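Q: Structure tokens for this one, please.
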Amino acid sequence: MRFADLGKKCRHAADIVGGLLYVGLFLTFVIQVTARFGFNRPLMWSDELAVILYIWVVLWGAAFMVPEDEQVRFGLIYDLVPANVQRLMRIAAYLIIGGLSAWALPSSWSYIHFMAREGTPVLGWPIMWVFLPFAFLLVSLVVRAVWGIAAIIGQFNLTEDKR
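A: Here is the predicted structure, written as tokens:
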């Protein structure tokens, strides 16, 4: 199996997990609205589960589903400089984002792990599981940064401007 095929399979699996999380959020929301407004019997667990699933959907999506070229960027200056300077700017951005994520990961993981002792108010789930996707996000930012820098260095050419 080629590395590119493995990457496609991983992206597909991440999309499936993200889709299932979103479907779970939607169904929880429908149950919540139906119970509250249809039967006048609000369900406490549905509020909590909706919040937990929303956190997972947002952080999972940011970590694994949003393609690199669809990330928010500030292109005013970037678009005005030559291709070699753009590559240097991308390397600097990757170093900043990946470096800060790598720096934050141990402390974030320590706190997330520490929160295993606390439970959510209604469902009683360990809060660690609520915020676990934040650790996934940090790891994915580090991996994306390393991958991005490797890709740029692989194509780096100081003698030719491809504009």
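A few notes: The chain has a mean pLDDT of 87. Residues 83 and 161 are 6 Å apart (CA to CA).
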